[in-house]
Design goal:
With 110 residues, this protein is an all-beta fold. It contains no helices and eleven strands. The strands form four sheets. Strands 1-2-3 form a three-stranded antiparallel beta sheet, with no helix packed on it. A three-stranded antiparallel beta sheet has the order 7-6-11, with no helix packed on it. A hairpin with a 3-residue loop joins strand 9 and strand 10.
């Protein structure tokens, strides 16, 4: 039997085995098979769409940049993003600014 794993939906550490194949979460009620849970980074944009490496996104609001007199303008299209762990979970290159880290809550999938 696999060891206890956190809930893939709400990340609760209190998941328990229902039987030999399934686990259940007492906090959100989610049931899952731990052998079929995809172990990957899931990042969602401001509209809730799942982003993946290589996607193109559009910036939703003017974002100030430290050390730059001008912000990244709303409507700027960012191509070929890379997803990372952490608070700023999108790495990208923006023309005129260079390499940047963005928060997924300020972009939408193009």
């Amino acid at each position: 039997m696999p060891e206890t794993t956190p809930c893939p939906e709400c990340k609760s550490p209190y998941a328990y085995p229902l039987n030999d194949a399934l686990f259940a979460c007492p906090e959100c009620g989610h049931e899952w098979d731990p052998t079929k849970v995809e172990q990957g980074l899931e990042v969602k944009d401001s509209n809730g769409q799942v982003l993946s490496d290589g996607d193109d996104v559009i910036v939703l609001k003017n974002l100030p940049v430290k050390g730059s007199p001008k912000p990244i303008k709303a409507g700027t299209k960012v191509k070929n993003i890379r997803l990372t762990e952490g608070d700023h979970n999108i790495d990208c290159k923006i023309s005129g600014f260079g390499a940047m880290a963005l928060k997924s809550e300020f972009v939408k999938k193009a």
